[in-house]
Amino acid sequence: MKPDIPLKPDLPPLFLPTTRDEMIARGWDYVDVVFVSGDAYVDHPSFAVGLLSRLLEAEGYRVAVLSQPDWRSCEPWRRFGRPRLCFAVSAGNMDSMVNRYTANRKVRNDDAYSPGGRIGLRPDRATAVYCQRAREAFRGVPIIAGGVEAGLRRIAHYDYWSDKVRRSILLDSKADLLVYGMGERPLVEVLRRLAAGEDIRAVRDVRGTAYRLGAAESPPQDGVRLPSYEEAAADKRAFARMTRIAHLETNPHNARRLVQFHGREAVVVNPPAYPLSEAEMDRVYGLPYQRRPHPCYGDEPIPAFEVVKHSVQIMRGCFGGCTFCSITAHEGRIIQSRSIASVLDEVRSIAASPDFKGVISDIGGPTANMYRMNCSRPEVREKCRRLSCIHPTICKLLNVDHGPLIQLYRAVRQESGVKKAFVASGIRMDLAQRSPEYIDELVRHHVGGHLKVAPEHCDAEVLRLMKKPSVEDFERFAAKFHESSRAAGKEQYLVPYFIAGHPGCDVAAMIRLAQFLKRTGYRPRQVQDFMPTPFDIATCMYYTGIDPIRGQTVYAAKGEKQRRLQRALLQYWKPENYFSVREALLSERREDLIGDGPDCLIPAKPPKEALASREKTLPGKSRTGRNASAKRARPSRPGYRPHRATAGRREKGIGRSGEG
Fold first, then answer.
1. Nearest alpha carbon to residue 65 among 56, 150, 140
2. Could you tell me which residues come within 8 angstroms of residue 139 by beta carbon, excluding any fewer than 6 positions away?
3. CA 324, CA 431: separation in Å to the nearest integer?
């Protein structure tokens, strides 16, 4: 049953309450659900708390939002009184550790999901901390964890920041239930049953959820047994086997229930939720969003919102299955698309905004050109266990028709007030080449001078481990892109992204990539360092040195020296990288690439800028070149150690993982 919520129909849609006063202003004396989020509250469909809270509101529940609460006490969790149904807890749109730390384990300078980009507004391992505070605030209220952080840590996982295998987040957070993947369908079902009077322990059968079994409870008999936490932590081959099984059980049409023991307790992972239909997608994205941050932030911008406020997500999911990417693991391989009518309704809503200048910043999704692409044989899809529909080759049963997407682009361009509609999401280049018409349409109307693409590497073995197409595929796409640009009378460029330090990539492979960049003239502006994130196949390779799918040994660059050399090779032309590049070349006996020849990466003699850069970093030297012993004597902020609570971090109230 849905509770009756009297709202005045003549009022415009309001933000959901974030304070007790806002709750009382709605005439409520209680709420059904308190959404706790590590992100600022933005009422926009690109933000999970905005989308899910609006959906529950549409289902008839009273929903309040507790955004970026002060986790040092449980008082903020008592703001709305005891929720009738549950706390719904998420670290935010990103894993809190990825959000806070770089691939080099350094604290980031900003937080795109916080007002003004400020850091320090959420704890490390936020899901566990928030769940603990909710339990402390109101004993007995069900706690449902969800989001990227919770979902990808649902079983034992390698944690890069503490450099160890950690238990399922269910054990550390003590959540009653965990919703993984895109949460609309399972969350609505769970709340419907809770509202009907069922106990939280009775709703453990919902697809797309996971739960913890106590020592006295028996696991389901139909579950596939994963290596236990203790086995995965002690034996890297057991960890690889666990990863392989977990990834093979991700197709909602044939996935089986998983069981993993942690000592005497066990974690049970139900099969994934079924994807949303087009009508369900249209409903979710058609809810009455305010499409802006809550007014409490004043003039402080939310950087992540500024990027997407004039963009439209037309689909979700990705069947690419890249081993280093969490999108497929979180959103699923089955593409879920909106109707053209739904997309146009959102475009009109954006065009009506007072600050709209006529430019839609992006029409896309996880991958821009997978709109309405799915298996042409549903009966085969229900049995398929491929981890990628397009690697090592594009499946012959995959519908790769770009026609519906071209039709959508043309419809958006015809909307009143729309001067330009760009495609800023990633393009899957091997798919795009199946439709020269699509590339022409893209180049003529939807590229703003530069198009971002992600070949990632040039080495065949590294690309195989990534599940990415060959570099020749990228070069063919680049040739077609430039040909179409010339035909359209436009000077446009590709901006390719490459990764350093991915499993399988050693210094020799990075030298080959540097040579490729030299030959093609590409100079990446930014270096992407591989970051091992929970659940990913590439993370398993990094930690274990094993490809979990084939069982083969894989090289992984773990030391700071190896990672530094690989980063430098990706930008070999920069003077400040000269000595690192030289060290890398000499280590591989590639003196032939040092000199003044056309194929050389660096000159024989270091440029003045390289010497000056090295001088600045020499021990005992300040930036002015004078002795810096006095400077060294002054206390400095201690270096980052993810597993230690240093004095500097305690001053900011940030303790060890799991501490409030």
1. 56
2. none
3. 20
Tell me if 360 sits within 8 A of 366, measured CB to CB: no
Asked whether 566 and 501 are in contact (CB, 8 A), the reply is yes
Tokens of 231: 């086995």
Helices (H) and strands (E) in the chain, counts: 26, 22
Three-state SS letters, 322-357: CCCCCHHHHHCCCCEECCHHHHHHHHHHHHCCCCCC
CA–CA distance, 309 with 42 (Å, rounded to integer): 10
Cα 53 from Cα 147, distance rounded (Å)? 13
Residue found under tokens 């007002």: 115
Element (H, E) at 117: none
Q: How far is CA 208 from the centre of its chain?
A: 18
- What would the pLDDT profile of 299-343 be if each residue is shown by its tens digit? 999 999 999 999 999 999 999 999 999 999 999 999 999 999 999
Residues 6, 480: Cα–Cα separation, whole Å:
58
- Residue 224 β-bridge partners: 258
Residue type, 642: P
Amino acid identity for residue 647 in this structure: A
pLDDT in tens, 488-527: 999 999 999 999 999 999 999 999 999 999 999 999 988 8
Q: The pTM is what?
A: 0.90
Q: Does residue 481 contact residue 451 with C-beta atoms inside 8 Å? A: yes
Question: Residue holding tokens 């399972």?
Answer: 186
Over the range 164-189, which residues count as b (16 or more CB within 10 Å of their CB) and which as e?
ebbbbbbbbbebbbbbbbbbbbbbbb
**Residue 92 burial by Cβ neighbours in a 10 Å radius (0-12, 13-18, 19+):** buried
On the question of a cis peptide bond just before residue 392, with omega within 30 degrees of 0, the verdict is: yes
Determine how many CB atoms are found less than 10 A away from the CB of residue 636.
Answer: 9
pLDDT at 619: 65
String of b and e for 258-275 (b: at least 16 CB within 10 Å)? bbbbbeebbbbbbbbbeb
In the numeric block, the tokens 């490390």 are attached to 124
**Tens digit of each residue's pLDDT (9 = 90 or more) over 442-474:** 999 999 899 999 999 999 999 999 999 999 999
